[in-house]
Design goal:
InterPro entries: Homeodomain-like_sf, HTH-type_TetR-like_transc_reg, HTH_TetR, Tet_transcr_reg_TetR-rel_C_sf, TetR_C. Keywords: DNA-binding, Transcription, Transcription regulation. This is TetR/AcrR family transcriptional regulator. The longest helix has 29 residues. By secondary structure, the protein is an all-alpha fold. It folds into two domains: 56 residues, Homeodomain-like (Arc Repressor Mutant, subunit A, Orthogonal Bundle); 119 residues, Tetracycline Repressor, domain 2. Helix content is 69%, strand content 0%.
């Protein structure tokens, strides 16, 4: 595999390319995204993109990885699991439209391309999993829930799943009010006392 050369592109310019890729993805979807479209949006020649990343999948994967930053969920610590999850719901609502559009834009391509799948997980999924895991760990330390509570395994699936399905069910992205009500009505009751076997 050829090593990409990046010496002539500043980090700021590289980020402009990545932002253009992500915007094109959200608007056009993966299949319709082209190097020409990204180049036009980023005001560069497509030869620049090919020289640095060689292929569309590599460019998209690099852009996805660039989107990974310390997410604001990491700083959430209200002193209780209920408070943490409600605050996480409010924060997540602020990015749900952009993140959900990005996930949906990758569609089947992310299932067929391991590099894209890994980049998407790194950019959007793993930071949230780590933050939720930290919330649960603190709750266990405080004695709010047992470490082996069976609902903990499904916490991320509940929260991330409702974000993805909301546009389909309701025709709009989940807002803060909806997500907090979901936490109160569905997530917190599931994390109540461990049910008897």
């Amino acid at each position: 595999m050829t090593t990409a050369r990046r010496s002539k592109i500043t980090p700021e310019r590289e980020q402009e390319f990545f932002d253009a890729v992500l915007d094109e993805l959200r608007e056009q979807g993966y299949e319709a995204l082209t190097m020409e479209g990204v180049a036009a949006r980023a005001s560069c020649g497509k030869s620049t993109l090919y020289r640095q990343w060689q292929t569309k999948p590599r460019l998209v994967a690099a852009a996805l990885r660039s989107a990974r930053r310390d997410r604001s969920l990491v700083a959430v610590d209200t002193g209780s699991l209920a408070g943490d999850l409600r605050e996480a719901a409010r924060i997540t609502a602020g990015t749900s439209g952009r993140d959900t559009r990005l996930t949906q834009a990758l569609g089947h391509a992310v299932l067929d391309d391991e590099e894209l799948q890994g980049a998407l997980r790194e950019a959007l999924v793993e930071p949230e999993l780590a933050a939720l895991g930290a919330m649960v760990d603190r709750a266990v330390e405080r004695g709010e829930i047992p470490a082996d509570h069976p609902a903990v395994e499904f916490l991320a699936a509940q929260l991330l799943g409702v974000l993805r399905i909301s546009p389909l069910l309701h025709g709009r992205h989940a807002d803060a009010d909806y997500l907090v009500r979901f936490v109160d009505a569905c997530v917190l009751p599931a994390l109540g006392p461990t049910p008897a076997p």
